[in-house]
Amino acid sequence: MLPLDKDEVGHGCRLFSLKDKTALALRGFPDTFSDSRCVGSSDGWLVLLDKDSEPYLLDPLRGVRVLRLPPVETFPCVLQVLRRDDDDDGPGSAAFYEAVHLKRLRTTALLPLRTLREYIISKAVLSASPYDQDDDEGNSCWVVAIFGSESKLAICGSKDFGGGGAWTELTGKHAPYSDVMFYYGTFFALGNDGFVEVWDFNRDHPVKLMEIKSSFPQKSAEAARALRNLCFTNTYIVEAAGEILLLVRFAGYFVNEHGVPIEEDDLLTEEDIRPLVCPYRTLYFHVYMLDMNSEEWVGLDSIGERAVFVGGSHSRSVSVRDFPEFEGNSVYFTDDNWDPAEQDDLYGGHDMGVYSLQSGKVKGICELGSDKIEPPPFWVFPSDYPSK
Questions:
Q1: SS3 for 33?
Q2: pLDDT in tens, 300-316
Q3: Residue 54 falls within a domain, yes or no?
């Protein structure tokens, strides 16, 4: 999913097909869409925050259906929302937001609701499409969000949709969490420490099944320390052919035209009048498979005939036998380093491509002619899109 071109009118987006290398413009979205922040994409649905940080679901593929999620003030870290009907920017004004630093120092800040969007949800996933199951009795669809400064987990079920209900904290032991995913009703939460929590959501109330004490891989930890002045990392959890994979993404803070990460001090030399523009870019991935018996992450040099998709959306994998338009043994990625996209005028949202585990190289997906793509791209998989 890409933003509309600047000369295209209306509220909507473009869907770029990796198979056909063509883009289809979709319009007729609600007015609030153009001013929303996307924080997730699952089963064909987008998880969005409007300009007042209110979360909602939108289906861009089937008639632009919209479902309201529980209000933002029901998140545990939002202490109070102050609303003003005379606010020029909308009904919402500000919220008291509680942040935790170093796991013990608590501070409270009064934030405009538009600013709160940058802190309240870092990623959200769905267990299924809300309309794929008919269950009037229980929760046929769950939404799980990584929220707040501590990157904890909050959940709501389809009973809570429509703007009522509340977000409920899912009590886990391994916050901060870096990624989450569903696989046939089973929920996996990846902690920053490499541990994995597994929950059963095939019932009215989720039940924890196990904790897998798989510490963060030493190879990636050592590489991150060695490159800490040049690179940052993101981690993802994804199912592939029944196995659970961990992907560690290494991206350079400043990467020159030759694909080499450089120090910030090197952006300005004696010959330059102004600093070089060297946007952050993904350099490579480490891939691991979870060994359930030893509870360890085992390094992989290849994922065979699989293509993995990561970014701000629900991580997925497919077989290239079923989808030959994709490249096997590869990781397709979009930009999920959202802060620079909103703060920098020159770049942001641009960091997307395909990484080949065989060659160790990154190549582009499509040429957009700019390093500034706002809002950032997302993968969109229809709810009936197979992953086996």
A1: helix
A2: 999 999 999 999 999 99
A3: no
